[in-house]
Amino acid sequence: MEKEHIKQKQKAISLKILSQASQVFSKYGFKKATMDDIAKASGMGKSSLYYYFKSKEEVFEAVVKKEADLLRIELERRVVNSHDNPKEKIRNYVLIRMKFLKEMVNFYDALKNDYLGNLAFTERIREKYDREEQQIIQVLLQQGIDSGIFDLKETKISSMALATALKGLETALLIKNTIPLEQLEKHLDQTLQILFYGIVKQ
Q1: d(CA 91, CA 37)
Q2: CA distance 197 to 189
Q3: What is the pLDDT of residues 25-73, one digit of tens each?
Q4: Of the spans 6-10, 82-86, 104-108, which averages the highest pLDDT?
Q5: How open is the CA angle 95-124-188, to the nearest 5 degrees?
Q6: 0.85 cut: is pTM over it?
Q7: Range list for CATH 1.10.10.60 in the chain
Q8: What CATH number was assigned to the domain covering residues 1-54?
Q9: Residue 62 and residue 56: Cα distance in Å, rounded?
């Protein structure tokens, strides 16, 4: 019983550290943030912090994984498992995904920052995220096929094409800032219009 109590207490402390570390990384960036900053924000000594995490890289990896899991869970709850029609699901998927990425600075930094690409875990996270994204889009496309809304022979290539299109919007919104967040829906609707109906005059 006592062991379980200790385990729960340690888990709570780890979550507190990750919550504070997320804010530290968001403020200073991975490169400038230090274990001293994280320890201070978490209200503990640096030696205590090292008991839970052995390095800044380890803390950052845990923060990024946590943010990635939150995004996946939210997409499954609000999109994949919703009762919306498949076209609306794809639209909501993109909107929710973009808005979450805008807020989840550390996860997005791990996906796009070239400097972080030198960290061993970053490529694993990028590959896992790309794979999960494609799987979710495939599920949405298959739901559309099953309901008779989408006319597709298969979903793999189509999901790859859609994921690639999303990355273009992502770059404009989050990296180059050429699309303000409040205009995202307008640009998204134009992109989906092409996706669903093509560019040939009907």
Answers
A1: 39
A2: 12
A3: 989 988 899 999 999 999 999 999 999 999 999 999 999 889 888 888 9
A4: 82-86
A5: 15
A6: no
A7: 1-54
A8: 1.10.10.60
A9: 10
Q: Is the separation of the CB atoms in 65 and 73 below 8 Å?
A: no
Contact 18, 41 (CB under 8 A): no
Q: 140: burial class by Cβ within 10 Å (0-12, 13-18, 19+)? A: buried
CATH 1.10.357.10 domain residues, the chain: 60-197
Q: Which CATH superfamily is domain 60-197 in?
A: Tetracycline Repressor, domain 2 (1.10.357.10)
Residue carrying the six token digits 């920052």: 113
Residue type, 66: K
Do residues 188 and 95 touch, judged by C-beta distance below 8 A? yes
C-alpha to C-alpha distance for 98 and 76, rounded to whole angstroms: 15
**AA identity, residue 192:** L
C-beta contacts of 188-191 below 8 A and 24+ residues apart: 188/91, 188/94, 188/95, 188/98, 189/91, 191/165
Residue given tokens 């989408």 in the structure block: 150
Distance CA 172, CA 169 (A): 5
How many Å apart are CA 89 and CA 87, to the nearest integer? 5
Q: Which two tokens stand for residue 71?
A: 């995004």
